[in-house]
Design goal:
Length: about 180
């Protein structure tokens, strides 16, 4: 189990067990035990999609990717994982996140991915561990690119980006044109 603290000083523990995975599945329709499968939204829930071929991969996002790319989805998943602790702290779904600032979100993400890695490693699912580790490397590489781009941004460059985006130019082309891709 992995812990992190929120901005109010409360300690939270993320533990992936069959019971916590079942809470997530019952509430949201997704199985944390199948990070290597696709997920799609159906109404106010989600549905797992088996990734059989390239077309499936192009149409559906992997659950492991959705946890990184959609912070509101991540918050729903974490609410399910943390629900007993939220109730113990006398909080509700509506006010539980008020003390989750940027620093807390970073620590929470790290705790979740460490817990997922430990869970799958201990259950012998090394293919999923490799998926999680590869995804972490991609996210870290993307953050380094964003940092390098941010270092190059000036007020003039930002104005050109805003004007370009508003006129319909693709962000990739703008980044290349303005020398932000190196």
């Amino acid at each position: 189990m992995k812990t992190f603290n929120d901005a109010a000083g409360r300690t939270w523990t993320i533990g992936l067990t069959l019971g916590s995975a079942m809470r997530v599945k019952d509430a949201l329709g997704v199985s944390l035990l199948d990070l290597d499968q696709g997920v799609e939204r159906v109404g106010d829930k989600y549905r797992m999609v088996e990734m059989k071929n390239k077309a499936d991969a192009e149409k559906h996002e992997l659950l492991s990717v959705k946890l990184v790319s959609d912070k509101f989805f991540l918050a729903d998943v974490l609410f399910c994982l943390l629900e007993p602790q939220i109730e113990k702290h006398g909080l509700t779904k509506d006010n539980a996140w008020d003390a989750f600032n940027g620093e807390t979100m970073l620590a929470m993400n790290q705790a979740l991915y460490e817990e997922l890695t430990d869970f799958f490693r201990s259950s012998g699912r090394t293919n999923v561990v490799r998926l999680i580790e590869a995804q972490a490397k991609v996210v870290n590489a993307q953050m380094k690119v964003v940092d390098r781009m941010a270092d190059k941004l000036t007020d003039e460059t930002m104005e050109k980006v805003v004007v370009g985006v508003m006129s319909g130019e693709s962000p990739e082309r703008l980044a290349s044109t303005l020398g932000l891709t190196r």
